[in-house]
Each structure stands twice: as C-alpha cells, then as structure tokens.
C-alpha cells in the first residue's frame, strides 16, 4: 500500500511540472532570446570589426612592403649606376696605368741602350787596364824574382823569449827562431814569417 500512495504522489507532482507556462516566464524567455540575439549581433559586429582591422593592418603591411621594395629597387638602380661609373673609372685608370707602364718600358729600353754603350766603353777601358796590369805584374814578377821571399802571416804574438836578430826586411827587424824560421813583427804585433 505504501507503494501505491507513493506512486500517486509522484503522478500528482509530476503533473505540475508539465503545466502551462505563465505570462512572466514567456516574457522573460522572449527577453532572454532578444538579449541573446542582440548579443549575437554585437559579437558578429565585433568579429566583423576585427576582420576589418586585420584587413587594414594587412593592407598597411603590404603598403610598407611595397615601399621597401621600391626603395630597394631605387637603391639597386643607384648602385648599378655607381658601379658602372666605378667600372668606367677603373677602365680609365687601367688605361692610364698601361700608358705609364709603356712610358716606363720605353725609359728602361733607353737606359738599357745607354748601359750597353757604357759597357762597351768600359770593356775597351778594361782591356787597356788589363794590359796595363799585365805590364805591372810582369814588372813585379821580375822584381820578385830578384827577391824570392814570400810572406806568411800568423796570429801568433811576438815572442816572450828573445830570438836572434839576423837582419832587416822592409824596414823591420828580422828574427830567427829556435828551429830556423825567419820572421818579423808586423804593425799589429803579430809574427809574419818570411819564406825563401
């Protein structure tokens, strides 16, 4: 029986849930739907405004890119003209350098020719000098044959023990050593041996 009563109560209470709506609830529902519609239109307008602002930003960035491209192109054009002018200047400088090198080549040729002429003159002068030297050397040889003494210089200092003075050579005293060698003391104080 308890179950039956409980079932009846549930049916009665559930019937209240499905009752007709009152004017207040319908009015509030229409207001909420109208508010939702207004909010949706406002959101849509805001989204459209955002889209427009992004389009404007994109157009501005495109304009700046176009201006930078234009600047780059003008810079390239200026650079090309300056490069061309620099290339022309280099060509002119190479022409001038070539002319200068040609002039130096001509001067070096002239110097070589004058050097050849002087060389020929010096050859003749050398030939005459050689003949004069030959004459003097033959005269010296004949003079040295009469005195066949040759000199040999050593780094040995003058003797501490006095050797015997045996004569004179070129105005200097000639000494005879303990083993029979003959020498004199040169201006540096060294022994200069005389070979006979």
Give the secondary structure arrangement, pairings included.
Elements: H1 2-17, H2 23-146, E1 150-157, E2 164-169, E3 172-176, E4 182-185, E5 190-195
Antiparallel strand pairs: 1-5, 2-3, 3-4, 4-5
Please give the radius of gyration in angstroms.
64 Å
> Total number of β-strand segments?
5
The helix/strand order is HHEEEEE
Order of strands side by side in the largest beta sheet?
A: 1-5-4-3-2
Shape estimate: elongated
- Average pLDDT level: 78
Q: Assign the structural class, choosing from mainly alpha, mainly beta, alpha/beta, alpha+beta, or little secondary structure.
A: alpha+beta
**Segments where pLDDT lies below 50 for 5+ residues?**
none
In what range is the share of β-strand residues?
Answer: 5-15%
The share of residues in helices is: over 70%
Keywords: Signal
Signal peptide: 1-19
Biased composition (Polar residues): 187-196
Region (Disordered): 23-196
Summarize the structure.
This protein is α+β, with helices and mostly antiparallel strands and 196 residues long. Helix content is 71%, strand content 15%. Among the domains are: 62-146; 149-196, no CATH class.
Word description of this protein:
With 196 residues, the chain is an alpha+beta fold. It has two helices and five strands. It has helices at 2-17, 23-146; strands spanning 150-157, 164-169, 172-176, 182-185, 190-195. The protein has a five-stranded antiparallel sheet, with no helix packed on it. A hairpin with a 5-residue loop joins strand 3 and strand 4 (182-185). The chain is elongated. It comes from Flavobacterium hydrocarbonoxydans.
């Amino acid at each position: 029986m308890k179950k039956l009563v409980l079932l009846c109560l549930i049916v009665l209470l559930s019937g209240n849930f499905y009752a007709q709506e009152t004017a207040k609830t319908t009015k509030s529902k229409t207001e909420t739907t109208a508010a939702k519609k207004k909010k949706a239109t406002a959101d849509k307008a805001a989204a459209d405004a955002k889209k427009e602002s992004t389009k404007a930003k994109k157009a501005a960035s495109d304009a700046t890119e176009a201006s930078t491209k234009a600047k780059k192109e003008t810079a390239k054009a200026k650079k090309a003209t300056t490069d061309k002018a620099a290339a022309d200047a280099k060509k002119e400088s190479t022409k001038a350098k070539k002319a200068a090198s040609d002039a130096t080549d001509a001067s070096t040729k002239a110097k070589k020719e004058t050097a050849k002429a002087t060389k020929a003159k010096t050859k003749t002068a050398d030939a005459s000098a050689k003949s004069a030297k030959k004459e003097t050397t033959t005269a010296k040889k004949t003079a040295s044959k009469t005195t066949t003494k040759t000199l040999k210089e050593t780094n040995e200092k003058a003797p501490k023990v006095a050797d015997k003075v045996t004569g004179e050579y070129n105005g200097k005293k000639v000494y005879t050593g303990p083993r029979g060698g003959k020498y004199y003391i040169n201006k540096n104080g060294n022994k200069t041996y005389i070979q006979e």
